[in-house]
Amino acid sequence: MIGVLPQVVVNGILFGTMYGIAAVGLSLIFGTMRLIFLAQGTMIVLFAYLCFWFFTLLGLDPYLSLVLVVPIAALIGMGFYYGIFKEAAALEDKNVSLLLAVGIMYLVENLMLVLWTPNPRSVVTEYTGLVFRPFGIPITFTRLMALVLAVISAGAVFLFLKKTLIGTAVRAASEDMTSTTLMGINPNWVNAVAFTIGIILAAVAGVAMSTVYSFDPNYGFVFAIKALIALTLGGIGNVYGALLGGLLLGVIESSAAFYIPGGWTEAVSYGVFLLVLIFRPYGLFGGSIKKA
Amino acid sequence: MQQIKNYVTADKRYIKVIIGLVLVIALAVLPFFIQDVERSYFIYFLFLVFVYITVAQSWNLVAGYAGQISLGTHAFFGLGAYTTAIVWLHDLTKTGYYFDPVLMLLSGLVPVVLAIIIGIPLLSRLRGDSFAFGTLGVGFILTVVFVKLRTVTGGADGLHIPSLVYSSKLPYYYTGLVLALFSIGTVYFITRSRIGLALRAIREDETSAASHGVPILYYKVFAFAAAAFLAGLGGSLYAIYLFHINPDSVMNLNWLFYPILMCVLGGNGTILGPVIGAVFATALFSFGNIYFARMHPVFSGLLIILVMKFMPGGLVGLKDKIFTRR
Fold first, then answer.
1. Which of A144, A192, A230, B194 has the maximal Cβ count within 10 Å?
2. What is the number of domains present in chain A?
3. Residues A112-118: contacts with CB under 8 Å, at least 24 apart
C-alpha cells in the first residue's frame, strides 16, 4: 500500500492543477464582484471543445491552439462582463449575478449539447501516450503539460496582480470596493479585467483538460463545483490559497478513489468541503485577511 | 413602506380575496369542462405548475423572506420522493399509499428532520454564499448516498412503485391544486405572523435583529425546515406521478434552479411572485419543449439572463416600475 502512495499523491497533484487554475479564476472574480461564477466549469468545457475543434478541423496542435483560444476567451470575458454583468455587479443583491451565471451555464451547456452532441470527446495526439518515469512514478506528458500550464498561468496572474497598476487596482478592489471607487478607480474596468482573467484561466484549464481527459457538455457543472471546493479549501478570496486548494483537492480525490471502495469519492470531497466550510470558513491556509 | 401600502390598499384587499377565490373555484371545476381530461395536455400542464408552485414557495420562504439563499431544494425534494417510494415499497405504514395523506405527511417530515440536522450547524456558522454552497454540498452527498445505498434506494436505476394503481389524472390534478394552495397559504400565514416579522428582520440585518433579541438561529432553522417540508411534499406527489424515481429524475439540478428561476422571475419575497413565475416559466418550457425540442434549454438559459438583466425585481416588480414614474 505504501508503495503506491507517492503515485497516488503525484496523480492527485497533477489532476488538482486543473481545479487549481479554475479556482484561481473563481477567486479573482469573487474578489472584485463578490460573485461565485458557477458557469466557470461550463466555460472550461466550452474551451475544451474549441480546442477540440481547432484540432480536428484545422489540425492545430492543442497547446499551439492556446494562441487562438486565449484571445477568444478574452473577448468572451469582456463581452460577458459588459454585455451581461455590468449592471448586476453594481447591485447590492448578489443573487442577480449568481442567477445570471446560472443562466450562462444553462445557455452554454445546452448550446454545446446541440453543437457537439452529448458524446464524450477527447483530443488524441501522437504524444498522448507518452509517459515519463521519474523515480519509477509514471507521469504522462499531457498531465505534466497541464501542471506546467497551471504554474505558468498562475505565475502570470501573480505577477500581474503584484507588478502592474491595474493588478494593484484589482487587489485594492477586492479589499474594499467602495474605497477603491473613491480613489478614482473605475469599478467596471476592474471588474471586467478580473472577470476576463478568470475566463482566460478557464480557457487554459480547458485546453489542458482536452488533452488529458475525455469530456462532455454535462461535465461543466461538476467541474465548477470542484473548483468551488478548491476555492473553499484555500479560503474564498485568496488567490494563492485557491491554487493550493486545487492541488489538495486533487490529492484528496485520488487517495479517496484509491483507498475507499468505488463511488464514494464524490461524497468524500463534498464531506471535506462541508467540514471545512463549517470549521474553517476562511480556508485551510491561515490568513483570513489576506485577499487576492 | 409595505405597511403604508397595505393601509392605502386595505379596501382593495377584499377584491384580491374575491379574485383569488374565483380563480381557485375556476381551477377546481375546470376538469369538468375539458372533454378528454385523461389526455388533456392542459391538465398535465397545470399539474406541473402546481408542483412547481409548491417547490418555488419553499424556496421563496427560506430565500425570499428569510434571506438565506439555499441551494438544497432538490435535496429535500428528492428525499421526499425517496421517502414516498421506500415507505410504499417496504409497506411501512400499512396505509393505502396511493395519495395517502399519511405517506405524504411522512415524506414532508423526513426532509424536515434532515433540514434540522444540517440546518443547525450550517445556519449557525455560515452566512450568505458559504451557506448556499454548504447546502449545495448536502445535495451532492445525498445524491451519492442514493446512488450507493443500492439495497435501499435501488442505486442509479432507482425504485419502481407499482403503477397498477393508476386510474386517472384527476387525483393528481386535485392533489397538486391542494398542495399548491397549502404552500401558498403556509407561506402567507408564516410571513404575516410574528415569525415572518422576525424572518424579514433577519433578512434585512442579521446583526441588528440579533441585538434586538430575535433568536436568529431558531427562526432561520424554522424557515429552513418549513421549506424542506414543502419541498418534500412536492417530491412525494411527483414520485407518485412518476412511479419510477431515480437520482437522475428527482435529484436533478432542475429541481433546484427552476424554482429559483420562478421565484426570481415572478418576484422573490412576495406571495404571488412564485405563482406568477411558475405559470410563466412552465408555459415557456412547455412551448419550448413542443416547438423546439432540443433547443429549449438554450432558451431557458437565455430567458434567465434576459430577465435578470432587464428586470431584476421580477414580474411583480415590473408593476411598480410601470406605475411609479421616476
1. A230
2. 1
3. A112/A42, A112/A45, A112/A46, A112/A49, A112/A217, A113/A217, A113/A218, A113/B294, A113/B297, A114/B294, A114/B295, A114/B298, A115/A49, A116/A49, A116/A52, A116/A217, A118/A216, A118/A217, A118/A218
